[in-house]
Amino acid sequence: MDRLTVTQIISKIQSEEIFEAVASDYSFTIKIDKYVPYACAAIHDGHQFRKELWENCIHTEYERWYEEDPETKNMVQSHPILIAGCDSRFEYDLNRAPEDAVFETAWGKQLWHQPLSEDMKTKSLNKHVNFYKVVHALIETLEKKFGFCTVYDMHSYNWKRWDRAVPTWNLGTSNIDNARFGDVIEDWRQSLSEIKFPNDIKSTSLINDTFQGNGYFLKYITKNFKNTLVLATEIAKVYCDEYEQVIFPEVVETVEEELKTRIPRHAEYVYETFKN
């Protein structure tokens, strides 16, 4: 893996080079093994938290981990195109618009002992800006090359805090064209519901049940690219003990193995449906 500037990364994408890189400020990684009409993203996978923010942060390391999406990068690491965040959403949230990306409160609790200086905020927001420059170049290149592209936007959520039964998988589709994409969305929901988990974990899949797909990543791509479908795909955190901060690697591995075949198969179906 190379350490590259955003300008270098964009240049490689536009030249359709094969490469794997970490951004020069270590804020995200990108891997392109082959140019295909689909990409995977794990924008909340990151846990890094700038050291100069530590003492000022009221939330504990565990509280940050609890709201992040650990292991979502590993679940899709075998796919040819993958972009993933390295930084915690508590520094800046890649799934929120720039004006809301640096939190003052997080999940009902004050985040900072002292308000962040403009300089501190700018440091974080620059990373947000750079990430979206690369996302833009990536989707632009894929759309131009293939005519249509699908993005699997991987997230996870804390299912134990809900006071009702919630699905193992949730697809958020309220900000995409359901009249146009309804059939392929349903196909993806059906495929996810068929995954067999170890440890007697149930497998259910619903659309807009726990989350509706209101993230900035989906909205940004959908607004700027008319022939790219973003599938906000959330797995309940059945792959860990969200209260004890223990990861279940056998469950993560199962998800990865299942998605190795399910994502390319679905992406091919979407591409054949919409490439013209």
Please explain how this structure is put together:
Helices cover 36% and strands 20% of the residues. It is α/β, with parallel strands linked by helices and 276 residues long. The chain has one domain (2-274): Zn-dependent exopeptidases (Aminopeptidase, 3-Layer(aba) Sandwich), CATH 3.40.630.40. It has a nine-stranded mixed beta sheet with strand order 1-2-3-5-4-8-11-9-10, sandwiched between helices. A two-stranded antiparallel sheet has the order 6-7. A hairpin with a 4-residue loop joins strand 12 (240-241) and strand 13. The protein is globular. The model has no long low-confidence stretch (mean pLDDT 97).
